[in-house]
Specification:
The chain is mainly α and about 475 residues long. Helix 1 runs antiparallel to helix 7, helix 8 packs antiparallel against helix 10 and helix 13 runs antiparallel to helix 14. The radius of gyration is 22 Å and the shape is globular.
């Protein structure tokens, strides 16, 4: 079990606030940009490239997360955090100056390169300054940032594009990031592995190639066609090369201790599952509300926001539950909630209320908050200080990879069912999502189409239940002891 290698840190509350500011900056980025994108597209054009604005950010962020985690162990948390945050802020400024969609996508890629440092490094910094038994409660504060950002982000984005130039949505994070860096520069005492080591550049290159090819194939499967096969093959070959290189490297990118520790392996597997299950609600519940129920985007967003409210509440509760019971009991409790919540999605029907959908989302959020926090704390408390950065980063990376995998798998399930049930329609979901096309359909045809789409979405939700069951199995692999 790891122990903090320095004396108790003074001004920990300021370090916590600085970390929360940094996490808020990264969390609000997604929601605030999503709200403003229709306005941005209207000015810059290039609607066909709309998806790449989000995909390229996620791709470059995910690729760099493990690299930053390892660098934090070698060079120190503060230095690497400053590098990543500076890149993120510079990318944010450049995004506001984009003159067409191509430039915006390029600057979003640059922004993502920095974003890969923020989430894992803030969690690692907190783990450095708080003792193992304190981390569970502190994670509740960090998780609450996501709930707040889920509410503030869309409202702020809508207000900015209504009253100001859309560029301000990218620039609003700049003062937040600067304040966070100044606070950490003032109060966070640097700590690093004292042994002289170098970053494994060859291993990092193979990792970036493997992850970039895999995520590009998963995130852009519908638009790339048969190129997906080539990308998956490239990802497999790069992954194989990475494994061979790691076996013979004196300074592996992923230390052997990561794969030999059952708790760390289980924590990563658990977050992979959580990320995949999360997409069952994040990507497809709004489709149900707007398409099947005929609801508004506001209603869909309100139902989805319930997940972001349940997550921090459960995360805070899990800290206390861990201390009174065990990691395993808390993770299993969260897994049961996740299973119940995803199963509730199967009870939705064409006349279901938004409250029904929102309650399902809330239960799912509580399950995710409880399991993800428990897996993270169990891993951090079991990891040695020398590899704490890469262990924390691996947790974040696993969740991102799980989200991409979940999106690909559930999207394929939905498309297969739609092709099977509505072969005469090229894009039936779009037809019922567009109010004009929906009104143009005969009542009988509309009812039949909605029924088939509802059945197809139920298959997607069924896959979410199966994935959620996996978290219960994985929860049995973490220790049945309390944080100490």
């Amino acid at each position: 079990m790891s122990e903090t290698t320095h004396a108790p840190v003074a001004h920990r509350h300021w370090i916590l606030i600085a970390s929360m500011l940094a996490m808020f900056m990264a969390a609000i980025e997604v929601t605030i940009v999503a709200t403003a994108m229709p306005t941005i597209v209207a000015e810059l054009g290039g609607f066909s490239q709309f998806g790449w604005v989000f995909s390229i950010y996620l791709l470059t962020q995910a690729v760099t997360v493990p690299i930053y985690g390892r660098l934090a162990d070698l060079w120190g948390r503060k230095r690497v955090f400053f590098i990543g945050t500076s890149l993120f802020l510079l990318g944010s400024v450049l995004c506001g100056f984009a003159s067409h969609m191509g430039w915006l996508i390029l600057f979003r890629a640059f922004q993502g390169l920095g974003a890969g440092a923020i989430m894992p490094l803030t969690a690692t910094i907190i783990a450095d300054v708080y003792q193992p038994k304190e981390r569970a409660n502190i994670q509740g504060w960090l998780s609450s940032v996501w709930g707040v950002s889920a509410i503030i982000g869309p409202l702020t984005g809508a207000w900015i594009v209504q009253h100001f130039n859309w560029a301000l949505i990218f620039w609003v994070n700049v003062p937040i990031g600067i304040v966070s860096m100044l606070m950490l520069a003032r109060w966070f005492p640097e700590s690093r592995n004292e042994e002289r080591q170098k970053l494994n550049l060859a291993g990092s290159g193979w990792l970036m190639l493997a992850v970039a090819a895999l995520l590009t194939a998963l995130l852009q499967a519908e638009t790339l066609g048969y190129w997906v096969v080539a990308l998956l093959l490239l990802a497999g070959l790069a992954g194989y090369a990475l494994l061979r290189h790691e076996k013979h490297s004196g300074e592996p990118l992923f230390p052997l201790a990561l794969w030999q520790n059952r708790t760390i392996v289980a924590g990563n597997a658990g977050n992979l599952v959580i990320g995949a299950a999360m997409m069952g609600i994040s990507a497809f519940l709004p489709t149900w509300i707007q398409g099947v129920n005929g609801g508004t985007p506001l209603q869909a967003g309100s139902a989805l926001a319930m997940m972001s409210i349940g997550w921090p509440l459960a995360s805070t509760l899990s800290g206390r539950l861990m201390q009174r019971t065990s990691y395993r009991f808390t993770a299993q409790t969260g897994s049961f909630l996740l299973i119940i919540g995803t199963a509730m999605l199967l009870t939705l029907h064409s006349d279901s209320s938004v409250l029904h959908a929102g309650l399902s989302a809330f239960v799912i959020g509580t399950g995710m908050g409880m399991t993800s926090t428990t897996f993270l704390i169990a891993v951090q408390n079991d990891a040695e200080f020398e590899i704490l950065g890469i262990c924390t980063a691996s947790i974040m990376f696993s969740r991102m990879l799980g989200s991409a995998l979940g999106t690909a798998v559930m999207g394929a399930v939905l498309n297969y069912n739609l092709l099977l049930r509505l072969p005469e329609h090229s894009d039936p979901v779009q037809q019922i999502m567009s109010q004009a096309q929906r009104d143009a359909l005969a009542p009988g045809n509309l009812r039949q189409m909605i029924g088939e789409i509802a059945t197809s979405l139920h298959w997607v939700f069924a896959v979410s239940v199966v994935i959620a069951l996996g978290s219960l199995v994985i929860a049995r692999l973490i220790p049945a002891r309390r944080p100490d």
